[in-house]
Every structure is written in structure tokens, then in C-alpha cells.
Amino acid sequence: MTSGAEESGAVPPAPPTAAEAVFGDTLPKARRYAELLADDGVRRGLIGPREVPRLWERHLINCAVVEDLLPEGAEVVDIGSGAGLPGLVLALLRPDIRVTLLEPLLRRTVFLNEAVEALDLTNVVVRRGRAEEAHGELYTDFVTARAVAPLPRLAGWALPLLRKGGSLLALKGEQAEAELAAARDDVVKLRPSECDVIRVGRGKVDPATTVVRVTVTSEGGPPPSVGSRKGRGGKKKRGRKR
Fold it and tell me: Are 103 and 128 in contact (CB under 8 A)?
């Protein structure tokens, strides 16, 4: 059974202090995006109806505080963008950055394009495809991802897209330290990198957002086998479980 709010697509009001502190002048656009998620996002299966009551704390503000890690004018590729978390949130919050929302599923890219138009965002490009298909043609300062894949696989998709000094910012949960400890050796074999776990948004969102940051320290990308299992064979496309 769903609640009345879930049935109607009604959005809980933004927590005034936290939302205003994080979104500032962009709060009206954030509210509009929340409405889209609670309505079309639920009806199209992009988010679950149980997520509607916690859209602000768990999703919008949780993603928005990652902007603290992005310098002015940064280029960002959000892989497996889904409903636009975190890429679309960062784009509406930071008109100075340029964001590519990279998503393989048509129904999701349709929603993303509609959201970009509804929010009148001029700093966003929606691109249908997988990250590994963009290797060798798409380069960026930052790659963001949220709930896309385990870290070794995610790094295989993301690191070839980064310029030297660029960072993968992977939003993770409570087990981020353990996941990084288990994956660190595999990640740095893909491309020389520095890895750490940071928490952003303390005092704005509780709990703070946990990010695994992988910053590449070498020019160029890894060999074509980076996305394949155990590094064997040529390029190998892999479907993501959605």
C-alpha cells in the first residue's frame, strides 16, 4: 500500500534550512526537479515510490553537496545518469560547470531531455550510450556516478574518460572504505591514481555524503582491455543491471 503522497506524486516540502543553504537562488529549479522525480520519475520507474518522502535529504541534497569538490568551470560526465542523480542536480546548482549526462537506456534519456528542457538548463548535454563506448572520444575533468557499479568495474568505465589530474567521484554508502580497500590495487592497475574516501556536506545533510575519489596521475588512458574481466581480451561490452 502506498501513502497519499506517493499516489499523487506530491513532493514533501524542502527542508527549509538545509535546502536554502545548499541550493540558494537555484532552489526553485530544485523544487521543480523534485516534482518531476516524484511524478514522471515514479510513473516511469526511474525511482521507487518509497523514495518520494525522502527525496530531499537522501537524493537531492545528498547529491548537491558534491559541488564542493568541483572548481569553477569544471567539465563533468555523469555516467549511468539514470534519473539525473547526481549530474542533473549539480548542473542546476552550478550554471558555471558543463555536464554530460551519459545514460544507455532510451526511456531514461527521454526523461533527462525533458527535465533539462523543463528546467531551462543550457549547461547540460544528454548523451545516450555507455561509458566504455566513449573511450577515446570523450575527455573530462570529473566523472560522477551514484549507485552504478562496484568500484573496479566503475573505474574501468570512468578512468579512460579523465584528463590527467581529473577525478572519478563515486557516491558510495557506509562501506566505502572497505570497498576501496578491496579494490585499490585493481583500480591503480587500470591507470596510476591516488584514491581516498571523503565526506562532504557535514552540517548540511545527515549523514554527510560519502565519496570515493580516484584522481588519475598519468597522461592518456589505459589499454582497451580495461573494461574486460581480469584484463583479458579486447573491448568487451557489458550490460549493467538496472
Answer: yes
